[in-house]
Every structure is written in C-alpha cells, then in structure tokens.
Amino acid sequence: TSAGTIHGRPPRRTRATRTIRNLIGGAAVDGIRTFDKVDPVDGTLIARVHEAGPEQVDLAVAAARAAFEGPWGRMGVAERARLLRRIADAVERHAEELVAAEVGDTGKPETLARDLDVARAAANFRSFADTIAAAGLDSYLTELPDGRNALNYAVRKPLGVVAVIVPWNLPLLLLTWKLAPALAAGNTVIVKPSEETPSSAALLAEILAEAGLPDGVVNVVHGFGVGSAGEALTRHPGIDGVTFTGETATGSAIMRAVSPRVRPVSFELGGKNAAVVFADADLELAVAGLARSTFLNTGQVCLCTERIYIERTVFDDVASALADHARRLRLGRPQDAATTTGPLISQAHRQKVHSYLDLALEEGATVLAGGGIPSLGGDLDGGSWIEPTLWTGLDNSHRTVREEIFGPVAALIPFDTEEEAIAMANDTDYGLAAVTWTSDLTRGHRVAQRMRVGMSWVNTWYLRDLRSPFGGVGLSGIGREGGRHSLEFYTEPTNVCVQL
Ligand code: NAD
C-alpha cells in the first residue's frame, strides 16, 4: 500500500544561506539571536533569521504608530486604492522571486506556489482596492415624534496599529489576505510571519516599499510564539487589534493576551472538515474533487478534507478510486512539473502527522493507501516526507476522526441516510468548511445550508470569490473576512447624528 513515486533528478546544488532581518520603519534591524530555517525537501539550511525580542517589537509598534499619525493616516481612499493596485502589479512583476521564496520555505510544488499562492497574493490586493473604493456608508433619516428629522450617518475610521500573525501553510496568500484589507482601511501593521516561513514576508516588504508604501506602514518582526515575538506583540499595549490565522490553541492564547486591554480579534483557526458523497453524485468528478481537497498542499490547507462520508451503496467504488488517486500522486522536487505533492513543513510536523498514522492503527483502521514515511532516496531522505494516506474502519468516536491532523490523510466512513450524513459531518467542535457531492440540486442546497460551518461547497472545493465571507464557527474561528466583511474588522465606525 505504499503511496507515491519519486520523480528522480540529481541532487540539488548546495545553496547559499541567506540572512533575514526584521523590517522596522523601513530599516533592516537585527534581533536578539538568530534561528535556522531549513528546506523541508532535503533538510538543507537555507536561512538564518533574526528573532525579534521585546525591544524590536517595541520599535516596530512605535514605527507603526508614527506612520499612522503621519501622511499615511491622512491619505484619501482613492489614493490608497491606487497604491494597492500598484502593489498588485509589483507582486506580479516579482512573481518568480516570490515563488522561489515560497517554495524554498515550504517545499511545495512550484506550479502550486505560482498558481495559488502568488496569484492570490496579487488578487488579494486588487480585490480590496475594489472593496474600499466602492464601500459606502450607512445613513438613516430618523423621523422624530414632533415631525422633525435627524440624520444619522457612520464615518469609517481605521482601527490603528494592527498585529497580523500568520501560519506557514499558505504564507503569502494568508498574509496578503489580511494585509490588503488592513491597508485598504488605512491601518498600519506589524506582521509576524511563521518561524517556518519567513522568506516571502521579507520579500513582500521590499516589494511594498518599491510600490511606494511609506516606511513604517508595514513592519515585519520574525520569531516564534510563546516567549518570543508573537507573544510580545499580542501583549503589547500599543496594538489596537489582532488578526490571526493558525491553530485554535494559539487563538485561545492570543485572546488571553489581548483581554486585559479588550482589543478586537479576528481569528481563522483550525478545522476537521467533512465531505459528504451521495450515491447520486457524478462520482468521477467527486473522486477528483476529494483527491484535491484531501491532498492539496500535502493536506496542509485549513480547508482540507480529513473526514469523507460516503453513501454505503457507492462506498467501495469511491474508496478504491480515491485510493488509486492517492497512489498516483508524485512526491518529488518542487521544480519538477510532474510533482503533485511536496513534503510536510518540518520534521516536527511530520512527527505529529506520523503519530496519527500510528494512532489510526491502534484505533483499528484499515490502511487503504499510504500509511507511512516513504523512502525517496538520496538527499530527499533528509526531508519531511509522508505518504498520502486513506483509512477505512474508523468512525466519529475515534481521535483520528475528531482531531485536526493537518496532513494528506482522510478517514472514509459509510452512511445510509442524508440525516445521518449531516449529523456525522456536524459532529465536531470545529466548523470551518464542508463539501457536498450530489447531482440533486435541491439536496445540494438543503445539505449545504445545514452544515455547521463558515464555508459550505457543493460539487467543488476551495472555489473563492474574495467578496464572500470567509471564516469558521466553533473552534474554527471568530469573525469573517472577505470583501466588506473584512472592512468591518479593520475599521471602527463613528456614528454622527445631526438634528435637522
Ligand atoms: P500556529 O498557531 O502554531 O502558528 C501560527 C502563528 O502564530 C505563527 O506565526 C506562530 O509563530 C504564532 N504563534 C504561536 N503561538 C503564539 C502565541 N502564543 N502568541 C502569538 N503568536 C503565536 O499555527 P501553524 O502551525 O503555523 O498553522 C497551522 C494551523 O493553522 C492549523 O491549525 C490550520 O488549520 C490553521 N489554519 C487556519 C486557516 C483558516 O483560515 N481558518 C488557514 C490556514 C491555517
């Protein structure tokens, strides 16, 4: 049941190790120490990164505050929208450098970095330029008992200095998804990229400067969470809000950190997403869709499917077709066009995912595909590879089916009725995304609406309109971002009431 084949190529040249510094008020700033960033493809050291201590975080908050109070704070909406479009153009001009940065940090296939991460980064800036340019204001003409009127209207103001804390799985995509609306709304920002993926954020900061963003509007501090830059930033009294994407437990820690000063938070957190396949679905389409939603980015997308409920009459057919798909995936170097699947982000993450491969067996799973660590040969054995894995024989009582694994794995579980499928899909503390596969239009709408999630897809997955609300319920998050939903977080309205 070994999954995946390696696409052979001679070992890569040893690359020069880069140094990545914090960017504060337009200047490169050393940290308190450096940490190593290794390539998950083969374990090569690729960068030494300066970790920001409390002093650098202080400087970054001060630089962001000063920029907020400078010309940036007085810039009109039309000019900010123009600047965001210039940034999108600059991202596209530097697309190949961004692809290289993203691929170096994550090991994901180049095609994926180009078509998903970098393309979406540019799209994020354009979309929020449109959103802010078109945004209107609430106004109400209030009728008073004496026959006179009052005019109420709301003025939108930026939050101020916003902390943007992002994970490693889609580093540039998720960073720009928060940065673009924050800037569109007129905030200044301190970014804390993941310690696993410092490179694209550092490069983006240079691109922002080239596009004409004033110094200090976006500052980047590097480091870890607890006891490091992340914690120092969220505890800092000078920040006006935190927008965060990452693990649920981290979200909870950030909430505690900001609670003494009652700062707003926007959280996009973990998931344990379900897909439901009805017998009436176009099964070929469904299997291709399930393969994508389970294995894209080596299963390291918050929206990825880890639970697949399949109507019993088609269970065996769907399971064997999906297993074939898993076995056809090509694990390999990111530069090879035939590669479909990269490594996991790190050895530590592989250990976590691997512990679930063991746990699934203890819980009585049958392994349908994968199930272990592949031997890819040569320098690749220094990387953090894992086999795309499918299980049967598990149900909702098992930890493997309840806990977020965040790898290329899924449990296949049969069901008999629509009610049962919905109940099992909703039987989770998370609530991020769901997919329904059916050819019955009415059933598609009916089931999709009953999913207790923020995003419910029918006959597709991860198809995004950037104006639509994105976020989760339960342990999967607080708030929604996307289009005007983002503006609600990144701005504070002041209502003006005039007696007429
Ligand atoms: P993580 O929570 O470990 O780290 C995310 C970021 O938070 C990193 O920059 C990290 O350094 C920082 N951090 C960690 N502890 C902190 C603390 N105490 N205070 C401040 N900052 C802290 O998450 P990860 O492992 O990088 O990413 C994977 C997780 O992200 C998964 O759970 C995945 O589901 C989730 N995710 C969610 C979405 C979504 O939109 N809902 C999108 C992508 C990823």
How would you characterize the overall build of this protein?
The strands form six sheets. Strands 17-18-19-15-14-20-21 form a seven-stranded mixed beta sheet, sandwiched between helices. Strands 11-10-9-12-13-22 form a six-stranded mixed beta sheet, with helices on both faces. Helix 7 (199-211) links the parallel strand 10 and strand 11. Helices cover 39% and strands 22% of the residues. The model is unreliable at 1-13 (pLDDT under 50). The chain is globular. It is an alpha/beta fold. The chain starts with a strand and ends with a strand. Bound molecules: nicotinamide-adenine-dinucleotide. Residues 165-169, 174, 192, 194-195, 224-226, 230-231, 234, 245-247, 250, 253-254, 268-271, 302, 404, 406, 432, 472, 476-477 line the site of nicotinamide-adenine-dinucleotide. Residues 33-495 form the Aldehyde dehydrogenase domain.
